[in-house]
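Hi team,

Filling in the usual template for the complex we talked about on Friday. All components are listed, including any nucleic acid strands or ligand strings, so the model treats them as one assembly.

SUBMITTER: L.P.
PURPOSE: interface mapping
COMPONENTS: two
RESIDUES: 841
SEQUENCES:
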Amino acid sequence: MKKLKPRTLAMILAGGRVDELNVLTAYRPKSAVPFGGFARVIDFPLSNLMHSGLEQVAVLSQYRSYSLINHIGSGAAWDMLGRYRGVSILPPSKGYGRSDWYRGSADAVFQNLDFAQYHDPEEILILSGDHIYSMDYQELIDYHREKDADLTIACLRVPMETAHRFGVAEVDDEDGARGGRIVQYKEKPSRPKFNWASMTIFCFKPKALYEVLAANAREDDSFEFGRNIIPRMLYEQRRVYGYKFDGYWGYTRTIEEFWRANMDLLGENPKIDIDDWGIRTNLEHRSIRDCQPLKVGNEAVIQDSLIYNGCTVEGTVERSILFPGAFVKKGAVVRDSVLFFNNVVGKNSRLEKVVSDVNVTVGDEVRIGEEGDAAAKEATVVGWNNLIPDQTVIGSDCTLYPTLTPEKLARTIRSGEIVR
Amino acid sequence: MKEHEQTLVLLLAGGVGSRLNVLVQTRAKPAVAFGGIYRIIDFSLSNVMNSGLSQVGVLTQYKPLSLMRHLGTGDAWDFTGRRRGVKILPPRTGSKDSDWYKGTADAVRQNIDFIRSHPSKEVVILSGDHIYRMDLDDMLQFHRRKQADLTVAMMVVPREQIHQFGAGITNDEGRIVEWEEKPPVPRTDLASMGIYVFDTEYLLRLLAEDREATDFGMHFIPKAIERDNVFAYPFHGYWRDVGTIQAYWEANMDLLREDSGISPEAWGIRPNLEADGRPADRPPARFAAGSTVRGSMVSAGCVIEGEVINSMLSPGVRVARNATVRDSIILHDCIIEEGACVDLAILDKRVVVGGGADIGCGERDAKPNTQYPKHLYTGITLIGKEAVIPPGTKVGRNCIVEPGRSPDGFATGKIPCGETV
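RESULT (copied from the run log):
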């Protein structure tokens, strides 16, 4: 008989840092940032979990959890609702003995060890909710079991020039392209000597995890998987393996990277194929299920773009991504841009390489971003709840903070300026 | 809030709607897709929801499966909860009254037990066949203000259409003083929309009185206006019975026009995306470089590489390079292959139009369909569910391709205008 109770417990680290993506993460964790025209970043790991058959999931959140809690809802959107299926949100909590905010990714898990122990899984899969990729975690888990590993880390080979930005491992060739033993590991080394980057996807043997987290809590003053837990396990000569992944991985820690990941959704053979990847989202969130189909006007031009239900396009949209509620009025041009929910672009306005957060209304005859090759300029980011008056001119590489008062925008804003 | 608990809604969704031809071959008319992501019944259900009514019985009869699947728990329209609910009421056999529903009143009569088991002050009876937005609460208030036994929603229609409706003449206070069901010669332009508010006691009495009477418009109203308080609730605004291919096509086209003011979203109409076969994980619509889209509505999950002009596209439609779709309604997951052309046609779900095929060729004022001249006569060609049109095939105007047709039905490669395959 098939075992109904899941063998693997998944824990998603969705705490997110404040300043990672500029004003886009001013009011939400990175994992709740909109991506792909209808979804959020965390929908990628959640959909991966669903397709991998892992449906007992905990989400560890701390920073501005509301939009995340709202987004996850009952978990039904990812089929995670049933006798042995569920999503539990685990915010920091008070209790006997300790009452702390999460002091790091490892501490977040350590403070919820009772939750993990209650489920008594055979493996605990800990992953970041911040990245865009498609992976069958079951293959990683199979490898982990085969190797009888204490920890298996999904690794991706990155160029040596960028390796300093990641936790990097030296993975031997024990199993060729599939994986191997991790010989060395360095967290963000200034002069990297190896380049298998950790994707922050960890499969732990529960007993090993419990022991190492307890030791970390007892003896260290930093509580991060990359900086503390992995080195500690290597030092203790535990069985630590690298599972080699060679697909797409969207690691977006700057606006430019975020913009580029968005552009990877476009083109003839998109690197991110959300249909093929089977990305699901919660249609109740922001009521996007109530949106009518996209309405295209008689003079509209749409080229190489993704547009969800609930939009109206009467102007021109090129190489752009429009979330529900975007309205591009007649004569307006939106190029190389990403418009989150409920944006309005007024008549004859022009947006060039703009990332615009929710509830932004751009008046008529506004210019944002310099014309010309998108790769040669930086994006301008507009924070949420802004109203940009008619005929305003804003350059490239600008940052507009959320909810600005009108007088702060009543002038020409030159490229590179930050308006707060 | 409490008052609404005293109102019961009966939604008549049993009609065959046979003039919709192949579109109703596998589903009831209220379940026919409309406006890209909706079904016709979503308009009535959402009107009920937005009016704050929450006890609903849906009377089904003809091919109810796709309708039942669509309704699900009623969750999409907020009908789940302690004092909320949507129940499917199919015909059943019993010690008496065991028969199919013979008409609107008969259908209601056969569900008297349902009416009795949900104590109510009024019963709202409406059909699931129409495209409109209406505040039923306002009609209820009108009914109470007038202390009416029965209130009928009525609107002005062009005189030449009055023969399709129940027609009424009202006096100054809104009382209906004369009634003709589908009059051949119009004497008024005030037509019944088939939406009734009955006092529950009055309705039960009426149904018990004359057990032979089976239709509200035909049998009950003419008698009721003689002796009881029957009022007309005036409705102004967009309302369409999409019971014919032509009306169905026109109402879809009405949604496409800029500034037409007809917007299911603004009207608060809710679809049930989860029930549409595939769950709701459709990605945004994708528009390739080199595509052309104008004057159209395009649903999530579509991939447009070719040209789409003045058309309504349901989720998951693919229009390949150099293919053209014009003045057409394309339902879920149809594939229009490279170089194909679809002009003035309605394609049911999962139709495949082979490369270079031509649907709707020839002059638009071609001869009507030979088999169904009253269904198809304005040039529209109808392709049934899951039909496969072989590459290069030419299909004329007013043609019908039956559902699920395998490619060998097209031996000649050319279907002349008015033919049925």
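MY TAKE: The CA atoms of residues 276 and 342 of chain A lie 27 Å apart. The first strand of chain A starts at residue 8 and ends at 13.

Thanks, L.
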